[in-house]
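Priority: low. Protein: Endonuclease/exonuclease/phosphatase domain-containing protein. Input follows.
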Amino acid sequence: MLEKALKESTNFIDTLISFNGEEPWQCTFIYGPPNTTEKHQFWANLHLIRKETSSKWCIIGDVNIVADQSEKEGGNPINSNKAKWFLDFTDVVGMIELPIKGGKFTWSNMRSNSEAIVERLDNVLISSEWSVAFPKAIGILEAAVASDHNPIVVLLEGLQKKRKKVFKFESRWLLEEECFSKVNEAWAENSGNNAHFHLNRNLKNTRIKLQKWS
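Result:
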């Protein structure tokens, strides 16, 4: 949960976040200025935040820079000078990109065919200390709704695998008359001359009917 806001400006909100009373960590939500003349000050401000921040730091948002040509399709080639600002920042400050699942590009000009342009403008940058604190963390790219950007959701514990529920027959069910009727219904649905052929299907139907009934 958000513990407190530290600093804010037109292009960033710097916050302190803590969950369940654990040691807080710093998270800066950003919107990189599209205007080239404002980009230099924007990156300078992030450098300044790093000097004042705790070791565990995460940056989330619209960088508004394409760092590599592979992260853009359509339109003009990327601006290498702007890309250098981003790469220099991550190198000097020691930030790495959090893996993001769900797609390669985060922005679209909402056009099609030869006029279509897609770019990766949004990112999640993390310090090595933050990475150690949340080793399972990943970013998930969600569908764009009422925006030309795809939102990114950060899952600190990674994707949780759904455990397959193991079927267990409860002996107390034998005390219920309805239990026997459910078993009879399951086997009657797939009756036939070849009992061996229908065995697996009948057992599966029995499990399903008893689970629903229970």
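The chain has a mean pLDDT of 85. The longest strand covers residues 2-8.
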